[in-house]
Design brief:
Radius of gyration: 27 Å
CATH class of one domain: Mainly Alpha
Structural class: alpha+beta
Distance between the termini: 73 Å
CATH architecture of one domain: Alpha Horseshoe
Shape: elongated
CATH topology of one domain: Serine Threonine Protein Phosphatase 5, Tetratricopeptide repeat
Length: about 600
Amino acid sequence: MNIIKSDINGRDIYHAFISGAKKIISDRLYLNDINVFPVPDGDTGTNLAMTMNQIIISAECNDSADITVESIYRASLMGARGNSGMIFASFFSGLQKYVKGRNTLTMSEFSEALFSSVESAYSSVSVPVEGTMLTVLKDWAHSIKNNLPKVIHFGELIEKSLHDARASLHNTKLKLDVLKKANVVDSGGRGIVDFIEGIVEFFRTGKENEIEQNEAPENKKAETDNNVEERYCTEVYIKGNEMDIPKIRSEVGKMGSSVVVAGDSNEVKIHVHTNDPGAAVKFASQQGKIETQKIDDMKRQTEADKKLYSIALVTDSIADISKDIIDKYQIHVIPLSVFIDSVEYYDKLSITPDEFYDMADEASAFPTSSQPPVSKFDEVFGMLSQRYDSIIGFFVSSKLSGTFQNAQKAADKLRDGGYRIDVIDSKLNSGAQGIVLVKLAEMIHIGKAHEEIVGFARDVIKRARIYVSVVNFEYMVKGGRVSPLKGIFAKLMNVKPIVSLDETGAGIAFDKAFSVKAIEDKIMKIVEKAHRDKIITSYSIVYSRNRERAEKMAGRMKQVVGIDPLSISEISCVVGISSGRGAVAVSFITER
């Protein structure tokens, strides 16, 4: 049934926009496949789908156009993901400003509202680029205005404008060299056309478009050079009072590229591609209260489209190993969170191990940590399952964190659908987790089968050890792992503990001494015995704020084992909450 109306109310807008949102969600795989601008990370469809899904979940269907559009805007801002999602949220921001106080919209008013929306979308982007979804939005608004004298109802108006929007989309690959080279249209622009098509469907039939599981056409994957100059797609959603959006946009513009800032003086969402996500998060925390944040590694995402291996290897940020090794084997890392004065930081992404200790000392309360939620594993595993034949996850000991359990829940969903995924409880942490992780990466590199790698992992875990030399009990006391009384006694007696893990992966106080040198000597005696009994085949050193001590220990290890360390790297912030400054850990693997 055709809907023939010359003006529309809030319910018409709701159903039309929800129909458009569902059309985008149906097309998400194709949108991912043609995503080459601004970064070929293959997630425009996913980002738009998540943005639209938040609208479907949260928007209110009300007779009033004002109330309905306001709710759509708030939902889009909360759910906005990526450049495309942020621009959509900015588009809805302009729409709600125009619609405020109106119960209905005439076709002429709708046209004026679109121009307000386009202006908002353009102004939200630090450096607007033509040949993108911005251009398609602008051309759509002009088409609506030009067709007003030729039509008598909304359905006819939207349908006529669809032709021009499609033409605008086709021309995007003539306006941007990167699109021309890949022979694709702009992915975000295609999302706009999908949105309009969904609206047309509603006015044609009186029903919302249904979400379909559309598959991407074969052989349509856009070919790109996969260069990523700013590695991390960083988004922060903040609430505050009288926030200065132009100032925020200007400051964020100094941090990277693809800057989009949407919202109003009370709530703002920031999007930036940057090599320093921590700077963006810290700046945002100074403007208002951080509600949510997201940091995606676009380098790893783009590599997944031209992957080296058929098996994806996933771990968490507690696995301490050098970044060069992580990058060499294209290992996917899911960060744990560190909370300092109620601000959430992502371990090794928005806070580095080096800066953690000063921030911890200046904080009003001692930092805490949290494992990634199941939804984060759903997101990462879901993305990888579309690109890899199988997934192996290798996570910090379940006795130390709920990370493994959350990963298992997400893996079960994929496994129930027939996908091959194994999630392994390492029963390790820090450097020990890191060196075993590298062994698994090496097996993937030489082409070993999934099942063989999983079996090897369960065997090598038993042969991995870690011994941590903690300088003092200060952080253990502050974190509640050691009682204040024991901490005072240890300080008075100058006790230096060795902390390790038992065979179940639980933390244990392995030994103690009364000087740093004595504790290092004890660790070396452990190493000498292990090498004498079973031969140490690989080892690493991790440290916190004491590189010189770590290198000294590496030198002593080499004298005993006869090989260089696999890695000398900093202890993760999450582990640092317990180990504190000055700690050094030796991890190694022995032969069977």
